[in-house]
Amino acid sequence: MTDLIRKPLAWLSGEVKTPPFSSGARIEAGFYLRKIQNGESLPMPVSRPMPSIGANCHELRIVDSEVDKTWRTVYCIDEDAILILEVFPKKTAQTPQQVIKNCQRRLKQYYS
């Protein structure tokens, strides 16, 4: 049996903590982030690809009914780590352009 090699999380922006997340939403986010660290692919609607940000970028969706918000965590699956690019409450169907630009800038800085 081989040991599981878990990719570390590299937080370039944002955090998942209570508050503003409810305790349940924070635990759910941690559950999904651990799956991503273990190399699992998450299906829609939990996670969706975000090619507008970059290759291997995705948006994790956490519905937080306790605080009536839907949280998004934008992440990139790098060879050595899971890069957390942004954590924000999403209020519309479309990801705000400023969030996309910030994530692209953070990726560029990370790889420079």
3D architecture notes:
This protein is α+β, with helices and mostly antiparallel strands and 112 residues long. Helices cover 27% and strands 28% of the residues. A 5-stranded mixed sheet has the order 1-5-4-3-2, with helices on both faces. Strand 3 (57-64) and strand 4 form a beta hairpin.
Estimate the mean pLDDT confidence: 92
Distance between the termini: 38 Å
Unreliable stretches covering 5 or more consecutive residues: none
Proportion in β-strands: 25-35%
Gist?
The chain has two helices and five strands, in the order E-H-E-E-E-E-H.
Sum up the structure in keywords.
alpha+beta
Secondary structure elements and pairings:
Elements: E1 9-11, H1 23-37, E2 47-49, E3 57-64, E4 69-77, E5 82-89, H2 97-111
Parallel strand pairs: 1-5
Antiparallel strand pairs: 2-3, 3-4, 4-5
